[in-house]
Amino acid sequence: MSTASAKPVAKKKRSSRIPLTYVVALVPVAAALNIVGGQINTILKLPIFLDMIGTAVAAIVLGPWWGALVGAITNIVSSFISGPIGLPFAVVNVVGALVWGYGVRWGLGKKYWSYFLLNIIVAFLCSVTAVPIYVFIFGGATGHFADMMTAAFLAMGQNLIVSVFSSNILVSLADKIIAGFVALAIIEALPANLTANIQLPAAAGGLKKVLWIAGGVIVGAAITLIALAVAK
Amino acid sequence: MRGVVIPISMVPGNSVIHRISPLPKLLLAGCVLVLSFSTRNPAILGALIVLGMVMVSVANIWKPFLRVMAILFPILLTLITLQSIAPAFPRPWTPIVSMGPFTIYQEGIYSGVTMVERATSMTIFALAAIMTTHPSDLFASLQKIGMPYVLNFILTMTLQLIPILQKEFTTVLSAQKSRGLKGTGFAAVLPSMVPVFVGAIERVQQLSISLESRAFGSSGAKTSYRSVKVSWVDYLLMLLTTFGTCGLLYWIITDPSLDWSRTLIFAPWLAITLFTLATIGFLIFVIIAIRVVLRA
Predict the structure, then answer these.
(1) Residue B4 falls within a domain, yes or no?
(2) What is the model's pLDDT at position A129?
(3) Which end of chain A is more exposed for a tag (fewer CB within 10 A), N or C?
(4) Of B183, B213, B243, which residue sits at a domain end?
(5) For chain A, what are the domain ranges?
(6) B46 lies in a domain?
(7) Among the listed ranges A180-189, A203-212, B196-205, which one has the minimum average pLDDT value?
(8) Residue B185: per-residue pLDDT
């Protein structure tokens, strides 16, 4: 068969390029990383969540729906370990995975600024999803650090929904920017066969991208500090 | 990290609750979840809590159960504080007392108390089910009722990987400390995520080869290391649970007198006491959180 007559090879979907056994083995690792991240966050009482880094990695590398599965499994399994309070928030984890996964596939991961924007969109949509759960299922509080900010906003005269959204969006912005950029660092360290066709800011290489990752983390931490100042 | 994570795991035993198949317990926990969210009647929610306590007593798991509740209950108290000053209820609200910028409302106390009852009831049944069930039995039972084995494998693997990743995090954080780097806070946690995940990826590659060599993706019946038998008693329990839940749901939906939000009046001293106790718990939590964050 000559080269000229050969049919062009159809571009396969990302998830279909990775063997099923590899995906089946990678999903639990991502979910376990989420759970352990959440536990470390609870132990160190950090004012974020740290339970979506594995979701971001799976959504970007494997695909949005595998990421959604990681998100759902994270909250289901963690409800076995630390009580059922986190179970309704599985929806938030799933939404985050879909936005990260489709966002990168729609080209929002090509440049640093668009990837940064993608993390902000994830934070916003996660907050929009989480606020009704906070308010209508848990009455606005789940014992997280953000509760004190909610109380502060309530003292300023805001109603409960606005107060919960205000506190949650601050924490969520910090959390998702940090999660997005830590996920980026993890994806860079993954084997090349897993990440060959993913369009992420890593393409430039070298020190610059590391600085961008660090910058993202610092901005995330700065937002958290501002949130702390508001809470005071 | 051991000892700090909420210690929810199976408590070995030979009680009646332990001997029941995982499916009826899971169904009961699910039904209580549905019932808890379908009503705000404090008496019904209180009855569910008492029923849950009976289950815990029969299972003889009081000690580990109270250890978990001691961590969760102060968190739940924050609900009373926030709800008292901003009820998740339609206006008008009946003020009881003003304290600086805050006003405590009758509906807020009602809402806070019922939300604490709601969260407590569903937590008790979930804990009772988890603490009397071996995780592998649970997943084997789920496979029996048609859960795909791939999903089952993923769930079991996730549970098994958690202690491994916890250990790796501890190792990485200790290594950072021994090199004079920070061992707590963002500066320590975030960089440690990368080596832990990348280390886990090596395991994934080995596991993937292992799964391929055992024909994981092949068709045909799959077997399990642990087998779970579902007896007629388990089927009877599931039937009773389903009918009981449906009956209660019908009562809750059709009887408007079960809404006590406007009729149950809390005496001002009781409302203030509840608010004060919950707020003290909330403030202790806030102070600890701020101290830890400032140290990090």
Answers:
(1) no
(2) 94
(3) N
(4) B213
(5) 15-231
(6) yes
(7) A203-212
(8) 66
Q: Encode pLDDT of B94-151 as tens digits.
A: 888 887 777 888 888 888 888 888 888 988 998 898 889 887 788 788 888 888 888 8
Alpha-carbon span A51 to A31, nearest angstrom: 9
- Domain interval for residue B59: 16-134+229-295
The residue ranking higher by pLDDT, A119 or A45, is: A119
Could you tell me if B155 and B235 lie in one domain? no
Of the candidates A146, A143, A145, A144, the residue with the CA atom closest to the CA atom of residue A164: A146
Nearest residue of chain A to residue B103 (CA atoms) = A155
Given the candidates 1.10.1040.10, 2.40.40.20, 1.10.1760.20, 1.20.58.630, the CATH classification of the domain at A15-231 is 1.10.1760.20
Q: How large is the ipTM?
A: 0.78
Residue B72's φ and ψ, nearest 5 degrees, are: -80, -35
Give B105's strand partners.
B95
Question: B141-150 — which CB contacts under 8 Å span 24+ positions?
Answer: B141/B21, B141/B22, B141/B23, B141/B26, B141/B228, B141/B230, B143/B222, B143/B224, B144/B23, B144/B228, B144/B230, B145/B23, B149/B222, B150/A20, B150/A24
Judge whether B157 lies within some domain.
Answer: yes
Which chain B residue has its CA at the smallest distance from A183's CA? B194
**Which band of pLDDT confidence, cut at 50, 70 and 90, is reported for residue A210?**
very low
Judge whether B6 lies within some domain: no
If one counts the domains in chain B, the total is 2
Give me the residue from A82, A85, A221 closest to B186, CB to CB. A221
Interchain proximity B88–A139, CB inside 8 Å:
yes
Same domain for B127 and B52: yes
List the single best residue of B10, B25, B82, B116 to mutate versus A (max A Cβ within 10 A): B82
Do both B271 and B203 map to the same domain? no
Q: How confident is the model at residue A143 (pLDDT cuts 50, 70, 90)?
A: low
CB contact under 8 A, B88 and A140: yes
